Amino acid sequence: MTIGIVCYPTFGGSGVVATELGLALAEHGHEVHFITYKQPVRLELLSRHIHFHEVSVPDYPLFHYQPYELALSSKLVDMVKLHKIEVLHVHYAIPHAYAGYMAKQMLKEEGIHIPMVTTLHGTDITLVGNHPHYKPAVTFSINKSDVVTSVSESLKEDTLRLFDVNNGIEVVPNFIDVAKHSNTSYTDCQRDLMAEPNEKIITHISNLRKVKRVVDVIEIFDRIQKKIPARLLMVGEGPQKDRCEQLCEEKGIEDKVVFLGNSSEIDKILCFSDLFLLPSEKESFGLAALEAMASGVPVISSNTGGLPEVNEHGESGFLCEVGDVDNMAKHALEILSSEETLRRFKAQAKEIAKRFDTKKIVPLYENVYKKALQKSKQ
After folding, report:
1. Which CATH topology does 2-175+358-377 take?
2. What DSSP string runs through 60-119?
3. CA distance to 218, 249, 262, per residue, from 232 (Å)
4. Distance from C-alpha of 143 to C-alpha of 137, rounded to nearest angstrom
5. CA-closest candidate to residue 300, choices 321, 279, 322
6. Smallest Cα–Cα separation from 76: which of 59, 97, 93?
7. What are the pLDDT digits (tens) for 257-273?
8. How confident is the model at residue 181 (pLDDT cuts 50, 70, 90)?
9. pLDDT at 189 over 60
10. Degrees to nearest 5, angle at CA 25 with 42 and 20
């Protein structure tokens, strides 16, 4: 099957999932064409089964905002015709599903019927998409998609609650290549680059936005480090970074917190981590938590959105109410209290992550594509 994938090429969860899906589909023998404005960050190697097509947006003084949707829909039309793409898979409702629908209509005029699968990831529904300026377009795009999927049951429920949807929504969870996270070649001596031998390594990875409650991460860590030697690794860039750095200085723990920025060495960081913190206000799924679990890192997270579908309370870590930093710190110390307890939680986290292995989830997407193709022929 020849599949066109449209996504944001950034460090965000939707772009990561779309890229990993494309790589996995290529391994299954499908031909995959990524169509976006920049090569996705995790698309490190192109092969004969994987192709990247850049969407260029002309810079005209007439336009105050450059019309990416127009450029994308036109590029989709050209790529579908040139490479005989059989199905479009767009990640994120706006602007990708909207541009995909326009491409479908243009191709239809030429007698080409291309099915479109839209995957909803989170903020395209709960935050941006629900804004009054975008809601009609998002609703339209969802309803005009041949098949719609969401990454969690929670996100499906949010979509049905917030939008007037007359299309079915299938839940296909995010996934992880468990084998990739298990077969690490890192040695213990490399751990010394991140922390002292007696320190536990606590990690947080996100885009450091307010919704991630990264200030809570600092508060939780502060409580942990008062009880045991520990170091916090903050991975990512975002608007709350300065506030977090300031808070570390106020608490006098700036020498125990390392801000690593965006990193392409997530596997290495997680390999040496002892605990992962994700106290978000909202998470449609919690891909960062799953990546941590697959690396054998237990998770302390908020009990919100799709996180309870990923992080199993008392097994892979603990779930706490949003903002309850005291309870989160208490559970963190419970996990880190002894090497035996930590080993048990690490093993359990890895075991639960196997439920979301690539080998189990990618076939679900292949079935979705077949369903979309059948629907487009009706």
Report:
1. Rossmann fold (3.40.50)
2. -TT-SS--HHHHHHHHHHHHHHHHT--EEEEESIIIIIHHHHHHHHHHHTTT----EEEE
3. 8, 14, 15
4. 10
5. 279
6. 97
7. 999 998 878 888 998 99
8. confident
9. no
10. 25
Query: Angle CA(303)–CA(306)–CA(310) in degrees, nearest 5?
Result: 85
CB 40 within 8 A of CB 54: no
* Cα 79 to Cα 56: distance, rounded to the nearest angstrom: 13
Comparing C-alpha atoms, which of 234, 293, 239, 243 is closest to residue 263?
234
Cα separation, 203 vs 277, whole angstroms: 6
Give CA–CA dist 151/170, Å, rounded: 9
Determine the Cα–Cα distance for residues 369 and 364; give it in Å rounded to an integer: 9
Q: Please state whether the peptide bond connecting residue 40 to the residue before it is cis, i.e. omega within 30 degrees of 0.
A: no
Contact 68, 55 (CB under 8 A): yes
Whether pTM > 0.85 for this model: the answer is yes
Q: What is the DSSP letter of 321?
A: -
- 31 SS3 class: strand
Q: Where in the chain is the domain with CATH 3.40.50.2000?
A: 2-175+358-377, 178-356
Give the pLDDT score at 47: 76
Q: What is the mean pLDDT of residues 246-257?
A: 97
Q: Taking residues 347-373, what's their average pLDDT?
A: 96
pLDDT tens, 137-177?
Answer: 889 989 999 999 999 999 999 999 988 999 999 999 999 98
> Is 142 in contact with 165 (CB distance < 8 Å)?
yes
- Tokens 């109410």, residue located: 321
Higher pLDDT, 139 or 325: 325
Q: What's the CA gap between 362 and 368, in Å, rounded?
A: 10
As given in the structure block, the two tokens for residue 2 are 């020849």
Quote the strand ranges of the chain, DSSP E: 2-6, 31-36, 50-54, 87-91, 116-120, 147-150, 169-171, 200-205, 230-235, 257-261, 275-278, 299-302, 317-320
Rounded CA separation 321/280 (Å): 10
For the segment(s) 178-356, the CATH number from 3.40.50.300, 3.40.50.2000, 3.40.50.2020, 3.40.50.11710 is 3.40.50.2000
